Amino acid sequence: RKEVEQDPGPFNVPEGATVAFNCTYSNSASQSFFWYRQDCRKEPKLLMSVYSSGNEDGRFTAQLNRASQYISLLIRDSKLSDSATYLCVVTGDSNYQLIWGAGTKLIIKP
Amino acid sequence: SAVISQKPSRDICQRGTSLTIQCQVDSQVTMMFWYRQQPGQSLTLIATANQGSEATYESGFVIDKFPISRPNLTFSTLTVSNMSPEDSSIYLCSVEDPGGVYNEQFFGPGTRLTVL
After folding, report:
1. Fewest beta carbons within 10 Å, which of A55, A62, A68, B89?
2. Residues from chain B contacting residue A41 (CB–CB below 8 Å)
């Protein structure tokens, strides 16, 4: 079983729609959780950290469920520029060790 | 967040040669990391580079193949030694956000390596 699992997609979504991704992780000791965004042939960029109580940043909402060991990302009113691969990341046995999911590809269509 | 640059941005190398990748940060950071991202795959941590001590390598990566230097708090190098086509990948350095609370990491633009 992979340490961090994501649906690879692609998710093909019309502009303006709402889309949600889930991610599950296997290490119950993980302390920090993130969503990164990676555009084609670019480096990953931090989208948002995921707080225990859930957090929102504009059109983006992240939730953490420690009991079930999953993280979600919701994108509302999707834009063409949201097209990218979204990477779910959790810390490993030490807080600086990041374990990366393989990513979910999102394609927003006009 | 820190501004990170990498050199070279890309290279095409012959089998059996070595390439040294440089990573420069615009501020002092304690921890720097080297990752590999093979085509179509996610990131894999190669090693953690701390100033003043030997790098810590992850399972499957060894110092002879990927020697790392960390001479100061703003700079690190990763060498890919005795390259084979299987080493073709994007190599990324990252730093932990010194002002971060949740161990966020920020990445350089990457070095795209092709080994013939």
Report:
1. A68
2. 112
How far apart CA B66 and CA A56 sit, in angstroms, is 40
* CA separation for the pair B104, A31 (Å, rounded): 12
Question: The tokens 């002879």 sit on which residue?
Answer: B64
Contact between residue B15 and residue B115 where contact means Cβ atoms under 8 Å apart: yes
The DSSP call for residue B9 is S
Q: Does position B13 have pLDDT exceeding 70, yes or no?
A: yes
Q: Read off the pLDDT of residues B36-73 as tens digits, 9 standing for 90 and up.
A: 999 888 899 999 998 888 899 999 999 999 999 999 99
Minimum-distance CB partner of B103 among A87, A96, A101 = A96
From B112, which residue of chain A is nearest by alpha-carbon distance?
A41
Which residues of chain A lie closer than 8 angstroms to B31, CB-CB?
A: 96
